[in-house]
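Need residues for this backbone.
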């Protein structure tokens, strides 16, 4: 059996693995991407709500968005690929108790250069109908919206291939050992010798780290998204989140996509759509969105997937403290689509230059857990 060689082995061909592969190959490094599924975007990337936004509470996450959203907004001009960006906006409905903190985060977003509008209930209701009980107001991000994660992931795969990266599908990584110059990776009955490993295995990143004897504190959490029956409001609803209850919705064609993260959901690879949770989401949501009373649900159009979750719901991007040629790019929770451009360029800088000057990823270091660092509050 011959042993393949590469400067970098990227594990996982979701949106983050594809972005890393492109940015690394563009820097002239030889890249092999190992993906156990038959194609790209078949993990969490293919199951998201596709939202992109700048409305975060920590400077670190706002900066990732300020790098990433302009990339999505101009992707076609820059690279000739349509990634389906639509500026439908995120509309956050803010309860009185969170207003002061929320306004502080809006001030931070504006200071860093993110466009955000503060609306009263009447202005917000022009975009979607809701009951304003207990709300102090709303904010709207005009750059925020959606992309098509399949298109973006497949665009990076194609662009990475054009720059020389090789993708090996149906190739599950089963063993990883250190060697004097980097790593030895066993996958799909073949072997790769490489200088760096990039762990972009999403919710499976903890498992992949364990193959190399490394503790990568990222685990899976099931998230469900429900779809309404056809809905006849001509308006396109922004991605609207009731910060009081966590219930969210947005238009998806002539349907409404909606959900609520289950904070009690145990970690693990739990599968399927849970009708009891749907019932809870509907009962919770109807108080804010009374028109849900009449909204039919298309259970067969609803779906589920996994968040890869770190201890503070923000990603880990950078070298592992016990192995500096091992780069983790995982633990994005519900933000791994929107931050993939920044993650890819940062990882390429780390490996090609030993540091990244394009985006500040120092906050996302492995060793932050337990430190006194700002924790992101806008996690959904
Ligand atoms: C319901 C839902 C809604 C979401 N909504 C949003 C949203 O609105 N906006 C947003 O930004 N994010 C959202 N997310 C999160 C987003 O989908 C993820 O953060 C993102 O897709 C992670 O991409 P990734 O490339 O890191 O991981 P993935 O897409 O999961 O890719 C990891 C890949 O690694 C592969 N792999 C795993 N183990 C191995 C192995 N041993 N060998 C080889 N390959 C392996 C997997 O097969 C997979 O293809 C949502 C997620 C869910 C589930």
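Answer:
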């Amino acid at each position: 059996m011959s042993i393949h060689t590469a400067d970098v082995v990227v594990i996982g061909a979701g949106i983050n693995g594809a972005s890393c592969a492109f940015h690394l190959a563009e820097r002239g490094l030889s890249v092999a991407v190992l993906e156990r599924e038959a194609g790209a975007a078949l993990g969490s990337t293919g199951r998201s709500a596709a939202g992109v936004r700048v409305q975060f509470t920590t400077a670190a996450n706002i900066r990732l968005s300020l790098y990433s959203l302009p990339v999505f907004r101009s992707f076609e001009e820059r690279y000739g690929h349509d990634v389906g960006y639509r500026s439908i906006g995120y509309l956050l409905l803010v309860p009185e108790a969170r207003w002061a903190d929320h306004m502080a985060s809006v001030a931070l977003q504006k200071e860093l250069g993110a466009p955000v509008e503060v609306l009263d209930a009447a202005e917000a209701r022009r975009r979607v109908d809701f009951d304003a009980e207990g709300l102090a107001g709303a904010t709207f991000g005009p750059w925020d919206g959606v992309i098509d994660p399949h298109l973006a992931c497949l665009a990076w795969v194609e662009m990475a291939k054009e720059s020389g990266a090789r993708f090996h599908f149906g190739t599950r990584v089963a063993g990883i050992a250190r060697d004097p110059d980097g790593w030895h990776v066993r996958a799909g009955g073949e072997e790769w010798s490489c200088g760096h490993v990039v762990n972009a295995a999403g919710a499976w990143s903890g498992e992949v780290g364990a193959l190399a004897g490394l503790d990568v504190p990222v685990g899976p959490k099931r998230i469900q998204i429900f779809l309404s029956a056809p809905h006849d409001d001509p308006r396109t609803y922004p991605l609207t989140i009731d910060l009081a209850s966590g219930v969210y919705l947005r238009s998806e064609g002539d349907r409404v996509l909606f959900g609520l993260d289950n904070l009690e959901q145990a970690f693990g690879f739990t599968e399927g759509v849970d009708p009891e949770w749907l019932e809870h989401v509907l009962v919770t949501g109807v108080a804010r969105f009374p028109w849900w009373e009449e909204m039919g649900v298309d259970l067969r159009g609803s779906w589920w997937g996994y968040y890869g979750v770190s201890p503070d719901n923000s990603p880990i991007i950078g070298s592992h403290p016990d192995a500096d040629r091992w780069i983790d790019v995982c633990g994005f929770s519900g933000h791994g689509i929107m931050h993939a451009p920044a993650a890819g360029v940062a990882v390429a800088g780390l490996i090609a230059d030993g540091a990244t000057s394009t985006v500040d990823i120092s906050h996302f270091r492995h060793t932050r857990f337990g430190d006194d660092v700002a924790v992101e509050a806008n996690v959904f």
